[in-house]
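User:
Hi there, any thoughts?
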Amino acid sequence: MIESVRRRFVPLAAALAVLLSLTAVLIARGHAAAGHPGADHGAQQLGDPDYGVCRGTDPRCYHDWGNFDPATNGYKVLLFTRTAGPRHANLGPALASGLNPPLTAANVVQNGIIAMGKANGFAVDWTEDLAQVASPNQLFRYNAVIFFSTSRDTLDDAAQTALRQYIRGGGGFVGAHNAFGTEYNWPWYEGLLGGANYYDHGPEQTGTVRITDRRDVSTQSLPSRWGFEDEWYNLVPFPSQVRILATVDESTLTRGVKGSMGHPGHGDLHPVAWCQYYDGGRAWLTTLGHDAALFDLSNTTFPGAAEYRSLLLGGIESAMGMKPFCR
């Protein structure tokens, strides 16, 4: 009898979990749509998780505890690209241990962001070695930490603790592309991403990015609409209490937005970049960044590459406090 009940209950529970997940997406979509797409979604809505920290667009959430002295030390970021699951081709082969290990031409993202830093007045260190991110004191050498297409459980317990203490001490965080497919079982990290996670994506295709907030450093120099090619991530949960900076116009995705796991897309508000204060630090996020051509300056035909680099550069500069953040 008990086994019979169990066999009936388990599929029902699984179906209920899926229903609740999609319901949360629709609720969040409704909350976000209540304001115009570039509105500050700083007020907590019913059902929005708070992750037990100060979060949102109010700069009073920031902890200015004097951990950074750019006048003396300049500006420096740490690029972290360790993968514990799928690895995007634009990351190239896995890196050797240590800080700033040798790169090949195939390590496109690393080479591209290093060049971006050289051209814009900030230094870049790079690693995939957990020993280099194992303590907050190591991370406090950097004005921002960039997770670019990391994947799955890429951090151990020590690195998780170090990242959280770094953010609490006023650190900056930039999460790009598959940073959203990382640390699924860590609620604090989900909150750092803006209360969002990767769920699935539709076909890689060209679509139109819409800038919804022109006040931000990362968007103010971009056209209001620009073509771009990407995988267009669908998100569960949906970002909340953030400032949405850019969206994709789903009507321009001619091959459809439905993802491989059945996500129907986000309708009129499908965010692709946003910012927030979180647990004392700054976080700038974008789901965009799939293709290696984005960092190939000789490739002038890839749609939206120059605009993407401008968007990402502004996000990095603002997250590390080099320019005004999230306003």
In short: The CA atoms of residues 53 and 279 lie 5 Å apart.
